[in-house]
Design a protein that fits this description.
Layout: H1 8-19, H2 29-34, H3 44-67, E1 74-78, E2 88-89, H4 90-100, E3 104-108, H5 116-127, E4 131-137, H6 138-147, E5 157-161, E6 175-178, E7 182-186, H7 192-196, E8 200-206, H8 208-219, E9 224-226
Parallel strand pairs: 1-2, 3-4, 4-5
Antiparallel strand pairs: 1-8, 3-6, 5-9, 6-7, 7-8
């Protein structure tokens, strides 16, 4: 079994669902795919040979080793791919980030149309007690809860961008910061098309310093105001 090519985020996700007994042993390809871990489906037999306890020991060992090394950015992609690709899927990465959030999430985006499935894991995170601040252009942020949040409470804090009078500008950034640790910057809007059909490129990094600097760009800017 060789897990060296498996992204750290996937290993952490696997450890979380195994420890929480959301995945039963023996593992199946279908169950792994259901948790967004289809890249590990080929390792199901080897992991089953280790059993639950052995799998947890293996994952803990790998994660400790990786946390002691420098982090490499991960390429994130929406759209057609070649047979071999070192990129991760945009929709899977976004859902994984929301699933693993334990304290805070920052979301900044330009468009959120037809995004119920995209944002559902974020609502689940809020139900676990995670706090969320959402940033968008003022018109989008003001209508966000009515037009793009069909779930009901709990709600994210919505902050709108208003440029200076006479300046024609919008918030066009698309990024996510999770737990002041994970940073995802992408060209993809938070829409079904942006997450599943367009050609979009992004990068995922684990970098607490970058996370703090990026969050500060939004939270300390006088050009943002809370609208919901």
């Amino acid at each position: 079994m060789d897990l060296s090519g498996v992204a750290t985020l996937d290993l952490e996700r696997l450890r979380a669902v195994v420890a929480a007994r959301r995945l039963g042993f023996p593992l199946s390809r279908l169950a792994l795919q259901g948790e967004g871990l289809e890249r590990l489906a080929g390792e199901a037999a080897a992991l089953n040979a280790l059993g639950r306890d052995g799998t947890l020991v293996l994952l803990d060992t790998l994660l400790v080793e990786r946390r002691g090394r420098a982090r490499r950015p991960e390429l994130v992609w929406t759209g057609p791919e070649t047979r071999w690709s070192g990129a991760r899927d945009t929709a899977v990465v976004l859902a994984d980030l929301f699933h693993k959030a334990t304290s805070t999430v920052l979301v900044a985006g330009f468009a959120f149309d037809h995004a119920a499935e995209v944002l559902k894991p974020l609502h689940e995170a809020l139900k676990r007690g995670v706090g969320c601040r959402l940033y968008a252009s003022a018109s989008v942020a003001s209508a966000f809860l009515k037009e793009h949040w069909p779930f009901g409470p709990p709600f994210p804090e919505c902050h709108g961008f208003s440029p200076e009078k006479g300046v024609f500008a919008s918030l066009h950034a698309k990024c996510v910061v999770v737990d002041a640790r994970w940073v995802f910057v992408t060209s993809a809007n938070f829409t079904d098309r942006g997450q599943t059909r367009n050609i979009e490129v992004g990068v995922l990094l684990e970098d607490a310093h970058l996370a703090a600097v990026l969050e500060a760009q939004f939270s300390t800017g006088e050009w943002f105001s809370r609208v919901a």
